[in-house]
Q: What sequence folds into this?
């Protein structure tokens, strides 16, 4: 298994969800209705697949190896770039969750906060993914020695096996496919 290639592939599924989030927001604007269960499913995907599964692999495996073995440039890229953006995404999701609860409780104006945070998250993640695919991952492949990349690959095999035993990959692929049928 090539861990970095796997992370690039995971970006494809995450981008599919970002498209769904955007379409769901547009539908909410057009109809003044939010389907709470669908937004909950989107937030669940983002929390458990995009953040825990994908960002978890980056933060626990790849980024740690970059900081340890790829020098000060990697440390700056990771700590002042990628991790900051991961945290900003988590902030947007926390604010989205609060806004959705407020809207569900009858605060009609909270729909603005739902849409603002959901769309801000999609914009952030599109830029973040492009940066990783075009800059961060190629930098890691160029600067990390072969034995470090091999350690990363083995760690990814273990990580994926644990996640597969929990059904994470299959569950969230099904969530994306179901929501695509509704919103795309």
A:
């Amino acid at each position: 298994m090539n861990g970095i290639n796997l992370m690039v592939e995971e970006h494809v599924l995450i981008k599919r969800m970002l498209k769904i989030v955007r379409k769901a927001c547009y539908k909410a604007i057009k109809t003044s209705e939010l389907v709470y269960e669908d937004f909950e499913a989107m937030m669940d995907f983002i929390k458990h697949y995009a953040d825990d599964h994908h960002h978890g692999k980056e933060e626990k495996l790849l980024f740690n190896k970059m900081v340890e073995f790829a020098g000060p440039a990697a440390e700056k890229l990771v700590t002042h770039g990628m991790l900051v953006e991961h945290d900003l995404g988590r902030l947007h999701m926390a604010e989205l969750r609060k806004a959705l609860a407020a809207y569900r409780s009858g605060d009609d104006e909270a729909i603005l906060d739902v849409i603002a945070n959901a769309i801000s998250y999609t914009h952030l993640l599109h830029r973040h993914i492009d940066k990783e695919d075009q800059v961060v991952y190629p930098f890691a492949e160029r600067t990390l020695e072969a034995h470090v990349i091999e350690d990363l690959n083995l760690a990814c095999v273990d990580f994926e096996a644990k996640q597969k035993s929990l059904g994470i990959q299959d569950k969230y692929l099904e969530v994306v496919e179901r929501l695509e049928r509704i919103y795309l």
User: Anything to note?
Assistant: The chain has a mean pLDDT of 97. The helical segments are 3-31, 36-69, 71-104, 111-143, 146-166, 168-183. The domain at 3-183 is CATH 1.20.120.520 (Four Helix Bundle (Hemerythrin (Met), subunit A)).
